[in-house]
Amino acid sequence: MITPHLQEVHPVLPVRDVVTSIGFYVHSLGFTLAFADDPKDPKYAGVRRDGVEVHLQWHSEQEWEDMTASSLRFVTTQIERLFETYANAGVYHQNTDLRVTTWGTREFGFFDPDRNGLTFYENLT
Residue 43: beta bridge partners? Predict the structure, then answer.
């Protein structure tokens, strides 16, 4: 019997405006548009960078009242260069820094336009 094998995970982030979110991920973070359900007024889209695909799903203002924050952790290499790249893109909060953690990573994080947490890290071990 063949055992099922999980191949990938595509997290879905809640967003208020899919077009705005596509612009942020593509122009500020270096992703490319993988797909959109509608070319002019998408409600669901995917963006891809390297081996990572993130989906963006529109939610109405009423849904935001009960929405919980999402948070993603991206494993990366060349963390210093990525930190500098995103610093030049102007996406950071004033307190964003590259830090070493007690759990053995070097990382930084910030929020997308809809307050979804994005952390990028490199393992030190």
Answer: none
Q: Are 65 and 93 in contact (CB under 8 A)?
A: no
Check: CB of residue 112 under 8 Å from CB of residue 21: yes
Contact present, 60 and 48 (Cβ < 8 Å): no
CA–CA distances in Å: residue 10 to residues 2, 52, 57, 120:
24, 8, 12, 16
Q: pLDDT tens digit string along 55-87? A: 999 998 888 888 887 999 999 999 999 999 999
Q: CA torsion sign, 51 to 19 to 87 to 104?
A: negative
pLDDT tens figures, 21-49: 999 999 999 999 999 999 999 999 999 99
Q: Give how far the C-alpha of residue 45 lies from the chain's centroid of Cα atoms, to the nearest Å.
A: 13
Domains and their CATH numbers in the chain: 12-62+69-123 (3.10.180.10)
Report the length, in residues, of the chain. 125
